[in-house]
Amino acid sequence: MTTKIVQTHPDLGTREFELIDDAIEYRISSPFGDEELSVVLSVLSPEPVVDGPMMYFLSEVNREALIKLFVDLPDAEEFAEFVRTMKRRIREEDFGNLSADNRKTAITREQIDTTIHMLETNINPTSIDVLLSTLRDLSDAPTNQERLNQVIEAFNDLGMQQGPVLTYAPFFTTLLSTTDLDDLG
CA dist 146 to 75, 120, 149, 152, Å? Predict the structure, then answer.
């Protein structure tokens, strides 16, 4: 498992990335100056984007490129191992994902039906069809834990559509992580 990588580019300088606890720390030294930053893994999308000679790990919040790597440096094998490790660690840090364990009260059919109505009224239903389908299944059996898990999986797979869903369906906020802010320090 590779948790540190140093990349040297002949024109753009050196980039050093290291996975430490729940963050990635990087240092960039280039002709344009030096930069150091730490990024919490839970804010990153686990699926990077390749654009020519660069690979980007994007923010789940605003889709901004937060981690910028040179593809295949220092060599293809070490680079691929580091990227695999990073993707795995990002998935492990699922702070932003919903969890059925976070729901502390019973779910009623009325809550689910209201949620479906709010989503269909305010969001293009075709953009969230899988989520709506899983919600309908849950409405038929509100106490079924497996169906609730399917709703959560559908929500977690929405990507950028999660924001509008949270806006129009307060039901989902009851499934968000209950991490205390003091635990993040």
Answer: 44, 23, 5, 10
CB–CB of 53/70 below 8 Å? yes
In this prediction the pTM is 0.55
Summarised one tens digit per residue, pLDDT across range 98-137 is 666 666 678 889 999 999 999 999 999 999 999 999 999 9
CA dihedral 75, 77, 79, 84 (to 10 degrees): 180
Report the distance separating Cα 31 and Cα 13, nearest Å.
Answer: 7
Q: Which two tokens stand for residue 10?
A: 């002949």
Write out the DSSP string of 147-182: HHHHHHHHHHT-GGGHHHHHHH-GGGGGGS----GG
d(CA 64, CA 54): 14
Distant-in-sequence, close-in-space partners of 51: CB < 8 Å, separation ≥ 6: none
The token pair at 185 is 């320090």
